[in-house]
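RECORD TYPE: inverse folding
INPUT: structure tokens
STRUCTURE:
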């Protein structure tokens, strides 16, 4: 059976990832059949390319796959919230801009049919709230091991995420797609 997965490359502490098609029965580090995309988190902005036409060549008509993405939704109306969202895009994910739902729908056409589409805004809001709770629970350890700035930045990021999901600025979407011809 074939699988599409991320394959790590690059130097220590400076990875990049190839999106590859490989045999699921073989080790992830073994040779792969084709490269269908890449993700480089070290470029500005981070580079993510997926060739959906190439993916469609490997997936038989009628085959399904799923993916998940964080969506942008409404825009906050006060300066602090706007500044916190800008901080997330500029510091945590430099140059990052979450897609809107209609952009994802347009990207999967004409080769893919959307079978299921679920938004998980409330669930993902609870998840990021739990991550924030655990971050704060381990504040002393994090500050000692990685420094004050790492703690401050990630606390601000997770707090912004919790508020973004609660206020409908962001959502989480899960899609199940089927190849069509």
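DESIGNED SEQUENCE:
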């Amino acid at each position: 059976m074939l699988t599409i997965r991320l394959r790590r490359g690059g130097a220590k502490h400076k990875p990049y990832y190839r999106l590859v098609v490989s045999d699921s029965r073989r080790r992830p580090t073994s040779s792969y059949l084709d490269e269908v995309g890449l993700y480089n988190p070290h470029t500005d902005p981070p580079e993510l390319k997926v060739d959906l036409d190439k993916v469609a060549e490997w997936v038989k008509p009628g085959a399904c796959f799923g993916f998940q993405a964080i969506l942008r939704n409404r825009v906050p109306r006060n300066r602090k919230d706007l500044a916190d969202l800008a901080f997330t895009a500029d510091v945590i994910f430099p140059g990052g801009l979450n897609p809107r739902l209609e952009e994802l729908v347009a990207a999967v056409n004409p080769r893919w049919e959307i079978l299921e589409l679920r938004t998980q805004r409330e669930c993902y809001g609870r998840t990021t709230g739990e991550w924030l709770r655990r971050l704060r629970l381990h504040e002393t350890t994090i500050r000692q091991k990685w420094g004050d700035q790492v703690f401050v930045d990630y606390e601000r990021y997770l707090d912004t995420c919790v508020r973004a999901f609660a206020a409908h600025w962001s959502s989480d979407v899960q899609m199940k797609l089927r190849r069509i011809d």
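NOTES: The beta strands are 2-11, 14-23, 34-40, 47-50, 64-72, 112-119, 170-179.
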